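Incident log, structure service

09:12 report received: a user says their structure output differs between two submissions of the same chain.
09:20 pulled the input from the user's history:
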Amino acid sequence: MTIKHLALRRDDTCSVCFAEVHAGAKAWWDNEARVVICESCHADFGTSTSAPQSPNEDNTTLIERDQSLPEIEPNSPTLHVDTGVAGRSASKKYERLHRAREARIDAKFGRMAGLVKFLTDDPHSITAWKKGSAGERELATSLEQRLADRAILLHDRRVPKSSANIDHVVIAESGVWVVDAKNYAGLVQLRDVGSWLREDNRLYVGRRDCTKLVDGMSWQVDAVRKALSGLDVSVSCAVCFTDAEWKLFAKPFTLKGVFVSGPIALARKISETSQLSGEQVREIAMRLSTALPAKR
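09:34 re-ran on a clean worker, output below:
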């Protein structure tokens, strides 16, 4: 086992939900991946020794290497693209955690439970899921409006053999885009925190180093490429901030091959090039819809 349950010696961030975990709080430490997993997220992964968001994880835990893909006939009248519902799994996660907290309050305070609920709010580790779900829905609406009939959007996709999900997959004439939606507050910046001898570019939102968001895209791209095995299709990825701030005249940027932007710039980027025909877009969408089913 590479994961240990311990009290953190310093503040850190959960590698799964990116909620802040403060020093002294109990959490799980993955010694191999060198990441923290909060107790709520670890419960979802059961006895897994590593969270799927870790960029160092062997991808066989996401999709078996010898997994065969279903044969898809593009012209079959029985097939359709299940686009899914944006933010569904995050919303369900919030409701589950919220109800569990209220049940604990009921058990502990009895008749006073109502007053305790009125005077206290859910912690950030719970409300982050609600906020994240809202961000996914906001991004889905924005992309659907701006890309219209030029792309097919798949939302909240389940990765086989894993409890992980992919927020959005966009199939457009420019290729396939894997998009992670983040509803963070703060100023988005690309900062070089290295020395004059060594460049070290990082993604910051406000005062938080959020480079892990960029690193976490690798397993998602690998999962989509595996689902597209045998097809020569360009797969790009993006982290899109739905409610963050940008400096005046600031432009989106690319870090470690990941496009970082807001919704408008992302839609513009997706529309820049044309490599696929409309029929190819539909065929790829049906294949991905089947290989990466919508979360229920």
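09:41 both user submissions now match this output. Likely a transient worker issue. Closing.
09:42 reviewer note: The chain has two domains: 3-56, 138-291. Residues 124-147 form the longest helix (24 residues).
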